[in-house]
Structures are given as structure tokens and as C-alpha cells.
Amino acid sequence: MGRYLAVFLLIISTFGYSQETKGLNDLQELKALVVNAQTDQPMESVHVVNLNQVVGTITNEMGEFSLTAKVNDTLFFTFLGFKSQKIRVTNDMFKFKNTKIALTELAYALEEVIVRPYSLTGYLEIDVKNLPLNNAFQYSISGLSFGYEGGSKNPSAVTKVLGAILNPADLLRNLFGKKPNQMRKLRQMKEDDQIRNLLASKFDRETLTELLQVEKIDINDILTNCNYSKSFISTANDLQILDAISSCYEEFKILNRKN
Predict the structure, then answer these.
(1) DSSP code for 42
(2) What is the pLDDT at residue 179?
(3) Do 68 and 30 contact (CB within 8 A), yes or no?
(4) How does 206-244 read in b/e, with b if 16+ C-beta sit within 10 Å?
(5) Which residues pair with 69 in a beta bridge?
(6) How many whole angstroms separate alpha carbon 156 and alpha carbon 78?
(7) What does DSSP say about strands 64-69 and 55-58: parallel, antiparallel, or unpaired?
(8) The model's pTM
(9) Which residues pair with 42 in a beta bridge?
(10) SS3 of 201, please?
């Protein structure tokens, strides 16, 4: 009798462990609340991105959000004027629906800005020649209110990119080759409307660096090696930067496949 009882308990514990493990590995709907750490008031329109599953959402007027996730995924919270925060998903967050995530306000210190006006002579022909020129090629897409840059159109541009990609020590090969999982996220990011809307409103590269697990300087180096101008790199929003990196990555894969 004791042996049967021991076998029964073993089966029950094994079943319970398998169910628990299944819960850890399965995608589930996660619901939580975002509040202001100082006032404990709910925060509306906070951007929430699951960095592992590459899906995003925003909080409603009650500060609530829901998105698919699983245990050990990392959620990234951003809101203008507040410190960005990363939260690791735990099993308790699925069990208890009243989980609160608190964001802390940032104290901005305005730095002195020196404005250097152009020295105008009053003669149009002379003043026009003295103004800085942006030689970057831009193109627009119907339905969008902003333009894109297609990179350098000089005949030597393709040669420069090809030479850079074929160089084993080049950043493009080192980054794209060593981090294929992060680069695959490019397509997922472009397919998620919430993430695209978030990136279209941001210029700080913060969400991009978290999603791709690269540094801001790496993003600048990638685009520089792909012959994007300094003006584009410094002024484009994060969605334009995403599309530029994606275009460069696709070109890298094609050229790399041929060699």
C-alpha cells in the first residue's frame, strides 16, 4: 500500500511540475497597471514593449495594459518626461492581475544654448552661397508626413558599401554576423503597428537600442557605413532609422550570400 501511495504522489508531483513548466514556456496574456511613482496616479499612453516577443501596446486612460508575454520576458516602459524602465516578467504577474509598475519623473536641467546666426550681407546671391547645404537625397512615401533618405546616390556609393561589407573586420559583418537574432527582430518590429507608431514619435534611439541590443554608437556606425548622411542620422526619427538599418541589413545579406 505504501509503495502505491509513493508512486501516486510521484505521478502527481511530476504532473504538477510539467504543468508549471508549461506555464513558464507558454505565451499568456499579461495585464498590469502603470502609475506615477510620486503620486501613485495611473498613467495613460505609456508605451510598453515586450523586448523578447517584439510586440507593443500603450496604457489606457486607467493606466492599464495587456499584451502577450511569458515568464522571464523583459518589458520596456517609456513615457516622455519619465525615466524608462525595464521589468522582468514573473509568474506572480500572471497570477495576480493588480501588478503595479511605477515610473519616476525625470528632472530636466536646461543647458545654455548658444545660437550662432548666419552672417547675412543682404545680397541674396551671396547669402545663398553662404548657407550650408544638405546634399542627402530624400524621398517621400504617399500617406506619410515625413521623408526618407535613400543613402548616397554617388556612383562610388555601391563600391564603398560593397568594400565595407566584404571587409571581415568591418562593423557591419561583426554586428550583423554575431547578432543574427537581434537583426531578425528588424522584420518583427516593422510588422508591429504599435512599435512603429512608438518609433515614429521618438528621436532618442533608446527603444531601438533595447530591442536590437546594440549601442547608439553602433547605430551611427552602421548608417555611416551604409552611406547615410550625418544630417539624416542626427535628425531622423527612430522609425526612419529602423527602416534605414533594415534596408542596409537586407543588402548585407544579399551581398554576403553571393560571397
Answers:
(1) B
(2) 58
(3) yes
(4) ebbbbbbebeeebbbbbbebbbbbeebbeebebbbbbbb
(5) 28
(6) 41
(7) unpaired
(8) 0.65
(9) 35
(10) coil
User: How many C-beta neighbours within 10 Å does residue 51 have?
Assistant: 18
The predicted-structure confidence for 54-110, as pLDDT tens digits, reads as follows 999 999 999 999 999 999 999 999 998 999 999 999 999 998 877 999 999 987 444
- C-alpha distances in angstroms, 228 versus 74, 139, 147, 161, 249? 32, 13, 14, 11, 14
Angle separating helix axes 171-178 and 216-225, nearest 10 degrees = 120
Residue 167 pLDDT greater than 50, yes or no: no
- Return the CA Rg of the chain: 25
DSSP state of 98: T
Place of cell 505521478: 11
Instruction: Tell whether the torsion through CA atoms of 230, 234, 236 and 238 is positive or negative.
Output: positive
**Amino acid type, 143:** G
* Residue 82 DSSP code: B
- Distance from C-alpha of 228 to C-alpha of 235, rounded to nearest angstrom: 12
Amino acid identity for residue 209 in this structure: T
Q: How confident is the model at residue 123 (pLDDT cuts 50, 70, 90)?
A: low
d(CA 45, CA 186) in angstroms, rounded, equals 24
Q: What pLDDT does residue 227 have?
A: 83
Q: Would the CA dihedral through 49, 55, 58, 59 be positive or negative?
A: negative
Q: Which residue has the cell 551611427?
A: 220
Q: Report which of 66, 76, 69, 65 is spatially closest to residue 90, judged by C-alpha positions.
A: 69
Cβ partners under 8 Å of residue 150, min gap 6:
137, 138, 139
State the pLDDT confidence band at 245, using cuts at 50, 70 and 90. Answer: confident
